Amino acid sequence: MDAVEDIVIVGAGIAGLTTALGLHRLGLRSLVLESSHSLRVTGFAFITWTNAWRALDAIGVGDYLRQHHNQLYGLQSASTVSGLQTSEISFKAKGKNGEHDIRCLQRKVLLEALLKELPNGTIRYSSKVVSVEESGYLKLVHLADGSILKTKVLIGCDGVNSMVAKWLA
């Protein structure tokens, strides 16, 4: 089966879903290809700083995520090397655009928030990319099931073993 898509994004992780949502907010439809059979929510959490929250606000999920994640005002650490010496790092200092917004963000909650905002049918699961080739102005994306997608724009968000990056190299 050959299908034609204007924009194909490979990988339904944070980068792929954020890219798809950003395009959706601009009125552009994209198709996200994910090799696994469902959304992969491995990993637990990470610290997000002010600039990340500006990006999340720009795609329309910042307010929702703030409701589920408390702001951090500092960190404490203890060292057993010199007999339980503690130190504190404060985040209360103001940046040039106001107070810093620093939170520990749960990866699963972020991915689910991005997914919830995307139109149905944006993600195609069990779609492992095995190769990419060029055909005129189109890219031919070959999938493990034998199907081929033709696309004008191909965006690789498929991580360290990226098939898109291998094709570009």
TrEMBL record:
- Whether Oxidoreductase counts among this entry's keywords is yes
Q: Which InterPro entries match?
A: FAD-bd, FAD/NAD-bd_sf, MOase
Domain FAD-binding as annotated: residue spans: 6-166
- Source organism, top-level taxon: Eukaryota
Q: Which UniProt keywords apply?
A: Monooxygenase, Oxidoreductase
Concerning Pfam families, the annotation shows: FAD_binding_3
- UniProt family annotation: Belongs to the 3-hydroxybenzoate 6-hydroxylase family.
Q: What is this protein called?
A: FAD-binding domain-containing protein
The scientific name of the source species is Vitis vinifera
